[in-house]
Amino acid sequence: MKKPIIIVLLLFGVLVQGQNKKWTLKECLEYALENNISVKQSELDLELADVDKLTAKGNFLPSLSASSGVSENTGLSFNPVTNNAQTTTFLSATGRINVGYTLFDGLRNFRQLQRADISKIASQYRLDKMKDDISLFVANNYLQVILNKANLEVFRSQNEVTKAQIQRTQELVDAGSLPRGDLLEIKATDASEQQSIINAENSIQISLISLAQLLLIKDYENFDIEDEGYDIVDDGISGKNVSEIVSEAKETRSEIKIAEQNVELAKKDLQISKSANYPTLSAFFGYDTRYTDATSFIQQLDSDNPIITQQIGTVEGTGQAVVGQVPNTNTVVLGADPFVDQLYQNDGISYGLQLNIPILNGFTTKGNIQRSKINLKRSKFQLEQAELDLESTVYQAYVDAKGALKSYEAAKLAVESQELAYDYAKERYDVGLTNAFDFSQSKLRFDNANIELNRAKYDYIFKLKVLELYFGIPATELKF
User: Where found (predicted)?
Assistant: First the structure.
């Protein structure tokens, strides 16, 4: 009896632990890279590239085909074995094996295999870029949840101060030291803060749902993240020169590698188009055989009376009969030979070479070559544009990170100043030297400063990680 109870308790503990699980950023990134639909689609593109490569390899193998047929003929038909016309019903069967091999096709097969290799590399780079993009989306949404939670903590902690202040003000009002209006002002501040707390809780829930949807997690109610242990971690990227970051980005970023592979693909397409100008030489071999169950007829000498005398003509003018001896034959019906014997008796082989020389095809080949040249030029322009876009993006990310750092440092100074002002206002309010309205305004400015500090902090963290990503640090290795 104890054993089943222990098992139930263990299962219940596992279930509760699963419901209370808090996801770390690393876990979210790994889960997204394994389950995100866009990543899966890019992985399918990589699998298709493998299929294209397999097809390109298959072009080097000979073609092999086999065919067979069975028919029954009634009436006047040609015997497929004797090729004689017969009026009868017979069954016939045919079989054929064909082998073909391309000896030369202008190196098209080699170019197509090279193109398949390049296409696979390009697909891998597109997959890497998709993973980087998804990682940034996840990190941004994750940090948004942390920001909303940090803001909620600010609202709650300040509201605790407000509630304590309400109690203190109530005592002073009852003692006649403060007017009742001050108590009403503090209570109005408390109501406003309660509304801010509710809005902050809603913002957390909405941001959690957005993150869960990005991860394809359906259990919104139990989904939560680990919101502790995340701070500004700078591995020296902020101290690097922007030109160094740009140079590293051009070497490592998938955008450039994809554009470079597209240029290589365009070059191979041009070579494949030009190969249509060369002759094509192929070899072939064929083997065929046939069978029929039709009977055949032959003339055979009569063994008992092999020679007979009969009129063979007349003398012109007199009409006298001319007689002679001729062979005495009888018509004999022969049955069909056995199936296996006929396969050997009726088989045939064909083999040879075939040369196809292109002369004129309505300028189709010339048009394809010109089209490939244009595509090559376009891909080179796209590579140049990708380098310019990446350079502009890195510069923007660099400026954004520097600006976010200054904003964060300014926000810290603002919090320190507002905290001093708030403490001073609180001291004056406690001794009755200022009214509740001025105290509430000071407290509101302090709250807003803390919220702005949270926003500036996580904005700087995100922009710093974007800069590290452009510097070549993998998304799964970013430190927070």
Answer: Cell outer membrane
